[in-house]
Each structure stands twice: as C-alpha cells, then as structure tokens.
Amino acid sequence: MKTPREKYRNDPKYRYMVDSMVAAIHKCHYTPSEMREAAVLASIIYDESRIREYRIPMIPKSVENALEVMEEVDEALASVHQSITKDNCIHDARTRGTEGFFCRDCDQYFHKDSPTYRSGELLSSLWMALNNISVGSFRAGKGDIREALDMKAKIGIGVAHDNYEDLISEAEGLLAKYGRDVNEAYVVIEHMPVSGLKKRT
Ligand SMILES: [Zn+2]
Fold this sequence. Notes:
Layout: H1 4-10, H2 12-28, H3 32-54, H4 59-82, E1 94-97, E2 100-103, E3 108-111, H5 115-139, H6 146-155, H7 164-177
Antiparallel strand pairs: 1-2, 2-3
C-alpha cells in the first residue's frame, strides 16, 4: 500500500483533498478532529442515501465504510501534520494554562507576555469580555453597550493586527470604564428566563 506521502505526490485527486484540508485548517479554523468527524459523517450520509435508493438495510456496511474512511483521514491528517513547521503553524491545537498556552502542532509554548499570545489569545479574550458585558447589559434590560460592540468589530475574529497593542490598551480601557477586565471573558452568562414557564416555588 502506498504511503500518504506517495499518494499525495502521485494522485492529483488525493492531493487536492489534502490541500483542501490544509486550506480549511488555515481559513475556517476547522480542527483536524472536526474534519475527521466530517469524513465519517460524509460516509454515513452517502450510505443513508444508498439505503433509501435500494431499500436494503446496510447499516453494518456503513459502519465498516466509516471506519475505512477514518483510517484514510488519519493517514491524510498525519501527512498534513508533518507539513506543519514552527514558521507556518497557526497554533490551533492549544493546551491552555494560566501562564500561557502550548501548541501541540508545533511543540512551542507561548507565555502570556509573548507577542503571539497577546496578538491572538489575549485579543480574542478581550473580544469575548466585551461581548459578555454588552450581552449582560442587554439581558439586564439596559440595552447593548454600543462602544463595546464597536470595539468588538474593531478587533474582529481571527484577524491579525499590527497595532494589536493599541487595540489591547483600548479594549482594556473600555472594560475598566465599566469596572470589568479580561476575566469577564470567562464568565458564563445565565440564559434569559423564558416567559410563560411555570414559576418555580
Ligand atoms: Zn503551533
């Protein structure tokens, strides 16, 4: 049997599939395990459509196919993983700690003072904190916090900023104005009570 690398080199369709996965990891932030799930789901959907077509119970076959696909996807992902270097890694596989995060893809640790941490992890936590104070205000019947929403839009999702330190200061200043900080990102907002439900006694 050919190795994933050999298939990647010699089979254009296979290469296309792997390249699409690399693009998906880069652009859409799908994790390798989500793509693995997707491949299993694709196989199941395919078999379900065949079952409808022929009205033959084929469940065991679909499980078998799913396992085959999972194996193929594992091989393909292993070859994707091999192509990750310290320079091209987008640090998707994060193990987070209080002092920073470790990227399991490129085996690097990023301290909370590092540019990678501050421009990515910290900015997205600030985004979430701004989101949460605005949602909290809305649910308390005081409406959205407009400037928090504007700041969120300025930070964006997954956007790289050269002036990230400016955005951090601005966002932190805004949170401070409402007596909050980045820890608000980790606050779970309670669901709004649904009217018409029986009153708890
Ligand atoms: Zn990495």
